[in-house]
Design brief:
heterodimer, A: mainly beta, seven-stranded mixed beta sheet, four-stranded antiparallel beta sheet, globular, B: about 120 residues, six-stranded mixed beta sheet, about 0% helix, about 50% strand
């Protein structure tokens, strides 16, 4: 069991640049979630996929953010024209929809710093 | 509106002490789910427990126990005989039932940082 994998672990970028993060869920999991966590706060839901379909998006997900899961396996989260307020830990989680009591397994996150 | 409140920002105890982490939630739904997650310094959130709103039975797992009380909208977490390895940030979270079936849109509290000193 390899767990949820996220790359890169850290990303430093300049304001205005685009960044992309990748998440590889647990192989048999068909649901994939993205969360954002800022310092001293709990994670905040951004969006989720069931297979390749994006089923829910938070209002936190502005037009500069886009997430994809093209083949229902790994997912990418892209932020365009980054702003300093985008600095946060971006967490990915996965689960299986057939589970009666759904339980999310989280990755270690990608820490984004926008200078 | 959904909300989770963890009033204790930081708690410090000495090893072997018992410690209780408080969690109060708000929801208008009658069907909802409550969770506790542990976040060690490595950053990865580790699932501890899930409770469904229709199951008020308390639960014990080793040194961990959870007290769910719908009457006070609380879901408190107790660690008995704490150990240094318990040092982490603990999050309480709430999820509501939705037609899509996903229970993974979690509303997290701000977390309680627990420090257990030897």
């Amino acid at each position: 069991d390899t767990g949820v994998s996220q790359n890169p672990r850290h990303k430093i970028t300049k304001r205005g640049q685009n960044v992309t993060f990748r998440c590889d869920p647990i192989s048999e999991h068909n649901r994939l979630y993205w969360y954002r966590q800022t310092l001293g706060q709990g994670p905040e839901f951004l969006t989720y996929f069931q297979n390749e379909a994006q089923l829910e998006k938070s209002r936190l997900l502005s037009d500069r953010f886009s997430a994809e899961r093209p083949k229902g396996s790994f997912s990418t989260l892209e932020i365009q024209r980054t702003e300093q307020g985008d600095s946060a830990m971006y967490l990915c989680a996965s689960s299986h929809s057939s589970a009666t009591n759904e339980k999310l397994f989280f990755g270690s996150g990608t820490q984004l710093s926008v200078l | 509106a959904q909300k989770v409140t963890q009033a204790q920002t930081e708690i410090s105890v000495v090893e072997k002490e018992d410690v209780t982490l408080d969690c109060v939630y708000e929801t208008r739904d009658t069907t909802y789910y409550l969770f506790w997650y542990k976040q060690p310094p490595s950053g990865e959130l580790v699932f501890l427990i899930r409770r469904n709103s229709f199951d008020e039975q308390n639960e014990i797992s080793g040194r961990y126990s959870w007290n769910f009380q719908k009457s006070t909208s609380s879901f408190n977490f107790t660690i008995t005989a704490s150990q240094v390895v318990d040092s982490a940030v603990y999050f309480c979270a709430l999820s509501e039932w939705n037609y899509g079936g996903s229970q993974g849109n979690l509303i997290f509290g701000k977390g309680t940082k627990l420090s257990v000193k030897p």
